[in-house]
């Protein structure tokens, strides 16, 4: 197995203030745990290129991209923060970090489809799954996973791709990007009711390719494994995706105060292995996973190790 990890230094220079939980320390915690767990040496480390605007524009509206570029320029010139919403801000590095975050997902997709890699994990920020086609929000600028999935369809000609989202929050931006795209299946679970208060009702409930599973606060790994087995896996196996993308948020962890769910590292490893079984059955094993949330630094680092051990079949 060759599993790559994509990163870029700019992703650690984007920061939104000392108070902010979506901090550069998250990537440092992941790096530290990869080294401590001794799996670092088994991974192919790759530096993420910047995405081309044409890649981003497959998902995001031109006016939304231009607005962010302008706000990024303003942050560079002023040296301060430019707010997008109450908890999403740009600093001088954010625009470049966002280009490299999306670029990681696209480059990983190219390398996996080319057969250079079995699978890849993108240790990137800003995260992406709340970013709507026309609006950045919820710590997210560009929807990295959606951009990569669209790249796989438009550039590589794949006809069926699946997006698996196990972040504690609903991936509203991803759903919006693919609500009317029959070539994309999205499966997710998320704490409900909870930010961003989407994923229940609306147009998606009539679309069998949108497998949104709301779960109440305090749901644990047993509950999640059950819904994965009963709802995700049958849908994925009947859809037969040619490639699978993962919105890998680790904020449903028991120790993560951002959400109120009860997953542990073993649950992330189990979900990853189940997704790999689907990928091996239908997609030649092809998986690209992108970091989304996860705010308890220790739990995040340990969970990413569990996820990567499963992806690289080191466990
Ligand atoms: Zn989240």
UniProtKB/TrEMBL annotation:
Q: Which residues form a coiled coil?
A: none
> Residue limits of the Histone deacetylase domain?
20-311
Entry's Gene Ontology BP terms: epigenetic regulation of gene expression
Q: Name the Gene3D superfamilies on file.
A: Histone deacetylase domain
Any Pfam family hit: Hist_deacetyl
- InterPro entries listed in its UniProt record: HDACs, His_deacetylse_dom, His_deacetylse_dom_sf, Ureohydrolase_dom_sf
Source taxon at top rank: Bacteria
Named from the GO MF annotations, one term is:
histone deacetylase activity
* Protein family membership: Belongs to the histone deacetylase family.
Q: What is this protein called?
A: Histone deacetylase family protein
């Amino acid at each position: 197995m060759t599993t790559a990890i994509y990163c870029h230094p700019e992703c650690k220079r984007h920061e939104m203030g000392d108070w902010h939980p979506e901090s550069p320390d998250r990537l440092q915690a992941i790096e530290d745990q990869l080294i401590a767990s001794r799996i670092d040496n088994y991974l192919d480390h790759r530096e993420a290129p910047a995405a081309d605007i044409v890649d981003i524009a497959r998902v995001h509206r031109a006016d939304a991209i231009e607005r962010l570029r302008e706000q990024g320029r303003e942050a560079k010139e002023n040296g301060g923060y430019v707010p997008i919403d109450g908890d999403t801000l740009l600093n001088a590095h954010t625009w470049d970090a966002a280009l490299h975050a999306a670029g990681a997902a696209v480059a990983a997709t190219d390398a996996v489809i080319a057969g250079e890699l079995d699978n890849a994990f993108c240790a990137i920020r800003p995260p992406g799954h709340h970013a709507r086609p026309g609006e950045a929000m919820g710590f997210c600028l560009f929807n990295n996973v959606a951009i990569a999935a669209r790249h796989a369809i438009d550039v590589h000609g794949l006809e069926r791709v699946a997006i698996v989202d196990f972040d504690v929050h609903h991936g509203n931006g991803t759903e919006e990007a693919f609500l009317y795209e029959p070539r994309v299946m999205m499966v997710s679970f998320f704490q409900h009711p909870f930010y961003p208060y989407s994923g229940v009702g609306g147009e998606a409930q009539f679309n069998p390719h949108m497998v949104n599973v709301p779960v109440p606060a305090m749901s644990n790994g047993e509950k999640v494994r059950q819904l994965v087995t009963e709802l995700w896996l049958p849908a994925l196996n009947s859809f037969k995706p040619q490639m699978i993308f993962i919105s890998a948020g680790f904020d449903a962890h028991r120790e993560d105060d951002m959400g109120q769910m009860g997953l542990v590292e073993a649950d992330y490893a189990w979900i990853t292995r189940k997704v790999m079984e689907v990928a091996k059955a239908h997609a030649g094993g092809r998986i690209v996973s992108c970091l989304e949330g996860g705010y308890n630094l220790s739990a995040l680092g340990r969970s990413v190790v569990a996820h990567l051990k499963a992806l690289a079949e080191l466990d």
